[in-house]
Amino acid sequence: MAGTADRVDPIHQFHIVDLFQIGQIGGMKFAFTNSALFMLIAVALSFLLLYAGSAPRALVPGRFQSVAEEFYSFVHNLVRQVLGEEGKAFFPFIFCLFAFVLFTNFLGLIPYFFTVTSQLVITGTLALFIILMVLVVGLAKHGLKFFGLFVPHGVPIFLLPFISLIEIISFLARPVSLSLRLFGNMLAGHIVLKVFAGFIVSLAGLGFGGWIGAIGPLFMTVAITALEFLVAALQAFVFAVLACVYLKDALHPHH
Amino acid sequence: MATTTEATQPAGGEATATTEVAHGEGHGAFPPFDSSTFPSQILWLAIAFGLLYLLMSRIALPRMASVLDARSDRLTSDIDAANRLKGESDAVAAAYEQALAEARNNASGIAQKARDAAKAEADAKRAEAEASGAAKLADAEAAIVAAKAKAMSGVGAIAADTADAIVKSFAVATATKSEIEQAVKAALAK
């Protein structure tokens, strides 16, 4: 369905298409989908950027090497600032998280490309994985003292149950907010983009008056595309920063 | 949703064949909430992310870290070398300054010594000259005094002799030599 032949369907871009079937286990169908394809493309591109970027080993880096180094240093500084020296072990994970989200977000901005991060199951799985990692690391490092995270210092004893309840709820809300933020941003951005682009096509079909009228949505589409580039980078950054902040709770449960 | 996609399918023709399958299996649900795609997506997310983590943590990140470390090592060693050279040149400059100050001190010392020596010599010569001058002066004065005394004593005798001779030549009165001498003395004393 090209979308130009009839009314533009802004939801169409989010359809998962099975490129080939793999098999079925207990009613669950496994297939190589378009989202899987773009995940692998994002993995390949982000790996190639770092691999090729570190290949020249130049003392004074060229443009390409600068980009790769900046990419590396950016996440490296982020992890060091938030997690400190003991957070070094998590640097590869945070880096992969940032690279994966950033590259899938950017790939989604290319026309006809699939946006992996507009799938709730992807962002949700990542967020759940992060929270489970926080729990596992926290319990492994601090044992039951990790649950001191829910008991803030300096709170009057009669308020403590309520505060702890709120802390527990906010902790449980983390994976939800983390996944919904990224999913919502990407989904909404792409729908809006598609709707405005659809206006152009629909109006242009109406003849000369429509051509004039299509200028407005055209400008909007260009502006929203620019905005979506910002959102794509920003949401990847937010996702990585929040993962760092949550992991910090695992390393230092007592603020 | 299912009805609208079916309605549009005939227009799409051959191109809709693959999407028709996807739509049909999704039962028309909003695609991101279509749980039938979840197992595939989670599977491939695990594969892709695991692969990314392996590639990054084993190959790409250590490589990049080594490049950056090599640069920072190089920079720190260069900065150290620069600091060391700067220290050396500072030491050399300080030594030069010191030598210059010493030379200046020496030079002024030598000049002072020469000045002092010349002054002392001049003083000594002057004192010597003054001493010899004074001695000659004293000799001369003594000679003058002696000559004067001699002259004075001579004057008395001459005057007496003269007076005696005058008196004798006049022969008007005689006077003994002692009287005349007494008279001359009295006259000289006046």
From TrEMBL, chain A:
InterPro entries: ATP_synth_F0_asu, ATP_synth_F0_asu_AS, ATP_synth_F0_asu_bact/mt, F0_ATP_A_sf
GO MF: proton-transporting ATP synthase activity, rotational mechanism
PROSITE patterns named in the record: ATPASE_A (PS00449)
Record's subcellular location: Cell membrane; Membrane
UniProt keyword terms in alphabetical order: ATP synthesis, Cell membrane, CF(0), Hydrogen ion transport, Ion transport, Membrane, Transmembrane, Transmembrane helix, Transport
Transmembrane segments: 30-52, 89-113, 120-140, 146-170, 191-212, 218-247
Membrane topology term: Multi-pass membrane protein
Any single Gene Ontology cellular-component annotation: plasma membrane
Family listed: Belongs to the ATPase A chain family.
NCBIfam families: ATP_synt_6_or_A, PRK05815.2-4
Matches recorded under PANTHER family: ATP SYNTHASE SUBUNIT A (PTHR11410:SF0)
Function: Key component of the proton channel; it plays a direct role in the translocation of protons across the membrane.
Protein name per UniProt: ATP synthase subunit a
Gene it is expressed from: atpB
